[in-house]
Write a structure and sequence with these properties.
It contains no helices and 6 strands. The protein has strands at residues 6-11, 20-26, 29-37, 42-46, 51-55, 60-70. A hairpin with a 4-residue loop joins strand 4 and strand 5 (51-55).
């Protein structure tokens, strides 16, 4: 994944979604977010500016972010 300044290496082969950075799809919008698993099928989705909680079933997890390179 490349946005001009940040390059991410992703892995689409995973057996479980654990806490960490993931490429996700929310309402046909793809983005890299920090996911924290919460009890009862809930998750916290975070970016630097804000976060929100929702049901795990509300998102599609596409890939695990394995490494990130930021160019300046």
């Amino acid at each position: 994944m490349l946005d001009g300044q940040t390059t991410c290496t992703c892995d689409q082969k995973f057996s479980e979604v654990l806490d960490g950075h993931w490429l996700i799809n929310i309402n046909r919008t793809y983005s890299v977010r920090m996911i924290t698993r919460l009890p009862k099928g809930m998750i916290k989705i975070s970016i630097v500016e804000n976060s929100f909680e929702g049901a795990f079933s509300d998102i599609d997890v596409i890939a695990c972010i394995r490494s990130t390179i930021v160019s300046h």
